[in-house]
């Protein structure tokens, strides 16, 4: 009986660890696929986020649920493994294109 309780608790904790959150109403402008040379960010309304960076050391891809926003910055991750992306210029229109600056890279939205 105790073994079943421990397994049930572990399964519940694993389920909670994977939970992210949807993009809040005041951050809907973040939703979409954003690109620049060397970086791409895809933020879905349901909170699934994919960040791809290319550099001298190769390509890295992080795919994780949205954990939340602090100001303009957003955090993604699972459990204690989290990454915060610094947004120095939140989504805004510039000459008819949507732009934002994440981790020092100016990104352009290519699709919603």
Can you characterise this structure?
By secondary structure, the protein is mainly beta. It has one domain (2-111): Lipocalin (Beta Barrel). 14% of the residues lie in helices and 56% in strands. It contains one helix and nine strands, in the order H-E-E-E-E-E-E-E-E-E. The protein has one helix at residues 2-17, and strands at 32-36, 39-43, 48-55, 58-70, 73-78, 81-85, 87-94, 97-102, 105-111. The longest helix has 16 residues, at 2-17.
Give the key terms:
112 residues; globular; 1 helix; mainly beta; 9-stranded antiparallel β-sheet; Lipocalin
Topology as a string of helices (H) and strands (E): HEEEEEEEEE
Assess the beta-strand content as a share of residues: over 45%
Q: Give the distance, in angstroms, between the N- and C-terminal Cα atoms.
A: 50 Å
> Mind telling me which CATH architecture this is?
Beta Barrel
CATH topology: Lipocalin
What general form does the structure show? globular
Given the helix and strand composition, which structural class is it? mainly beta
Give the radius of gyration. Answer: 17 Å
Tally of structural domains: 1
Sheet with most strands: strand arrangement: 6-5-4-3-2-1-9-8-7
CATH level-1 class: Mainly Beta
Give the strand tally.
Answer: 9
For the biggest sheet, the summary is:
9 strands, antiparallel
Residue-averaged pLDDT, rounded? Answer: 88
The residue ranges in which pLDDT falls below 50 over 5 or more consecutive positions are 7-17
How many H/I helical runs? 1
The helical percent reads 10-25%
Write the layout of secondary structure elements.
Blueprint: H1 2-17, E1 32-36, E2 39-43, E3 48-55, E4 58-70, E5 73-78, E6 81-85, E7 87-94, E8 97-102, E9 105-111
Antiparallel strand pairs: 1-2, 1-9, 2-3, 3-4, 4-5, 5-6, 7-8, 8-9
């Amino acid at each position: 009986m105790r073994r079943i309780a421990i397994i049930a608790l572990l399964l519940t904790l694993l389920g909670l660890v994977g939970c992210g959150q949807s993009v809040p109403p005041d951050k809907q402008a973040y939703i979409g696929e954003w690109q620049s040379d060397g970086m791409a960010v895809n933020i879905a309304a349901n909170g699934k986020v994919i960040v791809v960076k290319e550099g001298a050391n190769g390509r890295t891809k992080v795919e994780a649920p949205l954990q939340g926003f602090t100001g303009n910055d957003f955090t993604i991750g699972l459990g204690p493994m989290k990454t915060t992306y610094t947004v120095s210029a939140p989504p805004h229109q510039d000459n008819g294109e949507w732009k934002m600056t994440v981790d020092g890279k100016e990104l352009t939205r290519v699709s919603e």
